[in-house]
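Researcher: Please generate the 3D structure of the following complex. Treat every line as part of one assembly.
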Amino acid sequence: MSTTTSWKTADPVHLEVRDLHLAFGANKVLRGVDLDIPSGQSVCVIGPSGSGKSTLLRTVNRLIEPDSGEVLLDGENTLTWNPDQLRRQVGMVFQQFNLFPHKTVLQNITLALRKLKGLSADEANEVALGQLDIVGLRDKAGRRPGNLSGGQQQRVAIARALAMSPRAMLFDEVTSALDPELVKGILALLADLAAQGMTMVVVTHEMGFARRVAGKVAFMDGGVVVEAGPPEQIFDSPAGPRLQQFLSQVL
Amino acid sequence: MDTLTQIWDTFFDWPSMREALPEMLTVGLPNTLILALASAILGTLIGLLLAVAGISQTRWLRWPARVYTDVFRGLPVVVTILLIGVGLAPLALELWGTNPYPLGILALGLVAGAYIGEIFRSGIQSVDRGQLEATRALGFSYFTAMRLVVIPQGIRRVLPALVNQFIALVKDSSLVYFLGLLASQRELFRIGQDYAANTGNESALLLAGLFYLVLTVPLTHLVNFIDNRLRSGRPEAVQEADPELSEVAPR
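Model: Done. Output below.
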């Protein structure tokens, strides 16, 4: 199932995370995360479960407020912004898709276009159908998410996020809830998007994808980025024992 | 045999029923409907406010909602009706005169609100957290996300319980007779009871009971219908009727 994309990432942003800290009570989830994602680059975040990868993404767009640290968009500290403004620039796709089950596929995408961007019904439909075209699901526009396969639902979720023309995208284990045969199609979409020059942070367990697509791979463990670098460096010559041990378990 | 005939006549004395029927239809039925409908609307509004306050992060909203619910759910309905209907009567006298309906409706609505608030709250809290997360990730504020995505889903799930509450209101509306009703203000129960007292048999009261059943039994079946529908999902036919779809229907 190959798609010819016509995504145009107009204005990718330079995303930078500096010394991000977060604790839930005594549980320190993030202990000083540093991550630099140059404009138009894809960074894959790998690491064992519980290492803080998903929490990092949620802290970047402030679904969870960090205790301290900075999230910079093109050098501007976003923690002083209204979080709603930040999230309109930084889209996110989730492991569980989180489509709105009570709305049609089309309405899932048009809701934010109409209510946040103020588009008319016709304009919103046009944008949404365009996005559905790209992910190959135009013919499902009138369906409800419950009638779609997991892979199709995740495509809709990606279309929904991209319809808002974000300047950076966060992907939180977006293939982990999918049947194996559906994973490839979603990864191909992400690779297309990366090739179009979107600034992306991809939390993933798909090491093959990370090696092929990522401009940089960051290995997280215990709430910090332990190692980061080009895929060849991370996968072929891991420096520290923690990364070496992790790779020996997953590869 | 005599005793049996006597009992039969007590319940099924047709002339007594026929005598009561016109007033039941023209006075009792409309009044019961007014009481039930008005208090249902009031109770739904109060319930919605209580539910939103009850799940708030702010203690100063959560706590009063809790106290309200405990008080009005814990008191016998008759006590609330008398306390409000009699207690506030002097105030009501200045505002709209001696008509006991406004205060009766207020009392019924306040009690129903406590129950409906709990129904809504459980429904809203049963909606997957990912729904709020995904909506906020698009750039919606907390309240808009709740209003557009979370609350509609939550309410859908508790529609059966909500209709049960409306059934209870139809029956509880009979309790306003404690406030003293003019002839034209009597509802189904009061008319039945008056005729029963005058004729010395219970047939008119039985007729009132039949009226209540005519109102409540269809509602009970509505509950079952909604329940089935929610369980088995929306039939595809209903989706096809979706106006949004006709605009985008593939040729």
